[in-house]
Specification:
Oligomer: single chain
Strand content: 25-35%
Structural class: mainly beta
Largest sheet: 5 strands, antiparallel
Number of helices: 4
């Protein structure tokens, strides 16, 4: 009996040791890995850097429950405008649309622009533009509750207000009065002057970061701007380097940095960090476009084109141009089964935490929401050899009563799980006011 007890005792101890070892197996490296890490600190640092980069990218499958490359008719149906902060289900696509502003009759409250990110880095804050009162509004990025007016800042233009890509409490803007490029802390209202653009260029005319305004590089390090119609510049904060572009015709447009900060887009061409031409895109002329990345990380210009490129092809409602080569990748085009490009198309490629995802809004020629893509909102994942387009709702917006301010100007969120747009809401309340709405995709987790 004593032998049996002794055997059971040792057996129990053995099981306990095995259990502890098993539970922590993935946490405790073996001796060889410990020695390797201590002997090669450079490799350890490299691993830490990779983790840091990954923290700025999500792996959300935005298209959960959505149908890819659907070309079937989904005519727009009448549905009452949702009450403030309430939702409706789009009757044609089954997506959730929430109203997030409450300006009232005769007012306009809408996104700044499709190419400018509305949400901060962690999507806890967002900005709308109150055109009626000429002020930017700060909202809670999750509940959409109004926080305050940003009436203590004066950007050079309404679209030229940029969230930091990593720090959720930081905004940047070019001050309209002083030409200072300012780092603004939202919670405290603190302003830090990073550089004065007039001083570093000796520009004697007007300075602007437009008119085809885009975000800074995705590391916040590079901006583009121009002096009058004379010279286009770029400025890199980390090296304090001012670059003058070799551009004959500035065309009142600044050269805008691509997400990498290593390429720039101007008119129909791309340029390098020395300001020299890289390539001319296979593009007839500039149209509404947005700078972003394809899913493989390539810097790209996403644009609508109503004419084929000089080398042929490249006609479509959304066409992606590789800024390294100038070659195009059709995303929505007649060759893929869609109609001729819709009027009033605006593209948003600012999902910096989920590269490759873009959004777009199309007003269309008929504006009745019957034909494919007319009055529609779409998202797409753009990867060479694998393009997926998802139709996510009707925006019910037009220019009839509010001209430019009536355009939807869809903006994709940093993670790509939400799409902001403006609308005067066609139907019984058509033209009464322009309010802001958010499509909350099935992948969105509040």
């Amino acid at each position: 009996m004593n032998k049996v007890k002794m055997y059971l005792l040792f057996f129990g101890i053995g099981l306990s040791v095995m259990s502890c070892t098993s539970d922590n197996l993935n946490l405790i490296p073996d001796n060889d890995s410990e020695e390797q890490e201590s002997e090669t600190p450079e490799e350890e640092n490299t691993e830490e850097e990779e983790v840091t980069l990954d923290e700025n990218v999500v792996t959300v499958d935005i298209a959960t429950e959505l149908t890819a490359n659907d070309l079937e008719p989904h005519p727009m149906q009448d549905v009452a405008k949702p009450e403030y902060l309430k939702t409706i289900v789009d009757p044609s696509f089954g997506t959730i649309i929430r109203r997030i502003s409450n300006g009232g009759d005769g007012t306009v409250t809408k996104p700044m622009y499709s190419t400018v990110q509305a949400w901060n880095a962690d999507e806890t804050r967002m900005i709308l533009y109150d055109q009626t009162n000429g002020v930017h509004q700060l909202l809670d990025g999750k509940t959409y509750a109004f926080i305050r007016n940003l009436d203590d800042i004066l950007p050079d233009d309404i679209e030229q207000l940029y969230w930091d890509f990593n720090q959720a409490d930081i905004l940047y803007y070019l001050d309209k009065r002083t030409d200072d490029y300012i780092k603004y802390t939202v919670s405290s209202g603190n302003k830090e002057i990073l550089v004065n653009l007039r001083e570093i260029t000796n520009c004697t005319g007007g300075l602007s970061m437009g008119n085809d305004v885009q975000m800074p590089s995705w590391d916040n390090d590079v901006i583009g701007f121009r002096c009058e119609n004379n010279t286009a510049y770029a400025y890199r904060f980390s090296t304090q380097k001012l670059t003058t572009f070799n551009i004959d015709d500035v065309n009142y447009t600044a050269a805008m940095p691509a997400p990498s900060g290593d390429l720039f887009y101007h008119n129909v061409s791309s340029y390098d960090t020395n300001g020299d031409l890289v390539t001319r895109l296979n593009k007839q002329k500039p149209e509404h476009s947005s700078l972003g990345k394809m899913a493989n990380g390539t810097d790209a210009d996403f644009t609508v084109t109503f004419n084929g490129g000089p080398k042929g092809g490249c006609l479509g409602n959304i066409v992606a141009y590789d800024l390294n080569t100038g070659d195009c990748l059709p995303v929505i085009s007649e060759d893929l089964g869609y109609d001729y490009p819709k009027s009033g198309t605006h593209i948003s490629a600012v999902a910096h935490k989920n590269p490759g995802w873009i959004a777009a809004s199309m007003i269309g020629f008929e504006q009745d929401g019957v034909k494919l893509l007319d009055q529609e909102l779409v998202i797409a994942r753009v990867e060479p050899g694998n393009v997926e387009v998802y139709r996510i709702g009707h925006h019910r917006a037009d220019e009839d009563q509010f001209d430019y301010w009536g355009e939807p100007h869809a903006v994709i969120s940093p993670t790509g799980t939400r799409v902001l747009f403006g609308s005067d809401w066609s139907g019984s309340e058509d033209g009464k006011s322009v309010e802001s709405y958010v499509v909350e995709l099935p992948s969105y987790q509040p």
